[in-house]
# Entry
Amino acid sequence: MSAGEIGTTVTQHLLSQQAEHGGATGAFTRLINELILAAKIINREVNKAGLAEILGLTGNDNVQGEQVRKLDDFANDVVTRRLFHSGHICALGSEEEPVPMNVPDGYRSGNYIVLFDPLDGSSNIDANIPIGTIFSILRKRSDTPAGKYDESDILQPGYMQVAAGYFLYGSSTMMVYTTGTGVSGFTLDPSIGDFLLSHPNIKMPSPGNIFSANMGNWDYWEPATKHYLNHLRSPMGAKPAYSLRYVGSLVSDFHRTLLYGGVFLYPADSRDPKKPTGKLRLLYECAPLAFIAEQAGGVASTGRERIMDIEPEKLHQRVPLIIGSREEVTLAEQFYAGRLGEKT
Ligand code: AHG
Ligand code: MN
Ligand code: MN
# Structure
């Protein structure tokens, strides 16, 4: 590519997709661009977190009962403000907010709902381990007045998503998203401050040779989970045993699975009676990543049910997540269905 050329920017990519959606008004493109601006602002703070005394705890807990870090709060504020500023939002749902947020007075409202995890993997911030932002975009479906929402607008199954994606603040800063016609990855070029298309049409290799799970939960898992993982970590004839990789930051573990293949799982465990169905949240962690996984040719399941088919009951509902290459996830479902067992 000659010096003058920089390749495709994410805005050009969005506009080309908008052109394909006849009648598109540009509202979606404007909304995504506000998310991109929020990510650039978060990225700037993440990159200097160690210096800016923004590390550490706020001293308060979120609705999940988890210690909230200053960067969680900062990211939540930035995403919330930018999205309301877009003028195309009907309501927002955030991991850091107990209930959905209405459009504040004085802001134009629109027909989009965005559910998001403003900072995923935040327990890793102090150790300089990659973290991310996850978003899920839905359309308002109730006939409530402009600027108002109904619970049914928030609690939509994953197959109703208009778009989903994440930002990964790692060795480089990336954006990965889908609108239902494949998965595209963009890398931030700090010298021009824009995301450039670096991973067009991402497809998840299948099978892979990596599994990703917190093995510290071993004694708290049901037998099917243990039998499945024992199967993966045993050499099977010509096939060598799988490798284990676990960062403890969902966006990082998922992004590696998306590019290299294999399986990530956060299954149900009995470690915390308050979280019998696992730790990850359906609406702003599992469902958006499930949309991306399926668009990349992968599968996302609870082990017993397609993630994108689950009818949500609560904003912060937790579900087991088994996500990755088609071969590994469909195999897991065999174990949970009892068709494969201990000695497989
Ligand atoms: P968040 O920082 O948004 O609360 O998410 C943390 C999640 C997810 O990033 C990761 O996969 C998981 O926590 C790790 O949990 P364990 O430490 O229990 O393995
Ligand atoms: Mn998270
Ligand atoms: Mn989070």
Notes: Residues 27-47 form the longest helix (21 residues).
